[in-house]
Write a structure and sequence with these properties.
By secondary structure, the chain is α/β, with parallel strands linked by helices. The chain has helices at residues 40-47, 67-72, 90-95, 102-115, 118-122, 132-145, 162-177, 189-195, 218-225, and strands spanning 2-11, 14-24, 29-33, 54-59, 62-63, 75-78, 150-154, 181-185, 198-203, 206-212. Helix content is 37%, strand content 27%. The two termini are 33 Å apart.
């Protein structure tokens, strides 16, 4: 289990995350919702130790104290904006997600190409020549190649057409079915509720709702995600 307890993130005098706690089991999806500026991205960065924070973050009770430690514990982070290297080829970007000895990295590449067949046709293309939707598939391929235990996914579907977003959601479900625990930041409450097992809603850095996604009131969650009080 990936567990966080009383996480707080400050940027100077500004508190971006205020005492947030969460847990995600292997093979489950936690959706994190909230209006712009709610602290969603800061929370994910805190979980993978990319920003200074207080509180506890651990995988199977082993604390995460650095980005390297997060990776060693099987935590992958897909940042907002996809985090791809535009001047590198698709193959090079996907390879960056794979870990271990050469045989393991080759297996990771094969797994990514098997799951997302388009990648093999793009192996030698620079990522900067691809469309936004194609770049999202590269980001998913890199994630699959790393075979993580847990994945932190920050608005990967932002700006995509509905059919492309459906593809992303399908791939995230397949990762969950493979036993990966996912924390997915989103801004579209109805789709997030359909995707996730549990939901966490932030407002001004604080958790204003945490619970089962299927039992939650969709209207209330949509209002909270937009920062509208009922």
């Amino acid at each position: 289990m990936l567990r966080a307890r009383d996480v707080q993130v400050r940027y100077g005098a500004v508190t971006a995350v205020r005492g947030v706690s969460l847990a995600v089991e292997p093979g489950s999806i936690l959706a994190v919702l909230g209006p712009n500026g709610a602290g969603k991205t800061s929370l994910l960065r805190a979980l993978s130790a990319l920003v200074d924070r207080t509180g506890e973050v651990a995988v199977h009770d082993v604390p995460i104290s650095s980005p390297h430690g997060a990776v060693a514990l099987g935590v992958a982070h897909v940042p907002q904006g996809r985090g791809l290297f535009r001047r590198l080829t698709v193959r090079q970007n996907v390879e960056l997600g794979s870990r271990g000895a050469s045989a393991e990295r080759a297996a990771g590449l094969a797994a990514a190409a098997d799951r997302i067949p388009e990648l093999e046709a793009w192996w030698t293309r620079r990522v900067g020549t691809l469309s936004g939707g194609e770049q999202v598939l590269v980001a998913l391929g890199r994630l699959i190649a790393g075979r993580p235990a847990y994945a932190l996914v920050d608005e990967l579907s932002l700006g995509l057409a509905p059919i492309a977003r459906d593809r992303v959601d399908d791939e995230l479900r397949r990762l969950r079915d493979d036993g990966v625990g996912l924390i997915v930041v989103d801004q579209h409450a109805p789709r997030a509720l359909a995707l996730a097992d549990d939901v966490l809603v932030l407002e001004r850095g604080s958790a204003v709702f945490s619970g089962n996604a299927h039992a939650a009131d969709p209207g209330r969650i949509a209002d909270l995600a937009l920062g509208v009080s009922r």
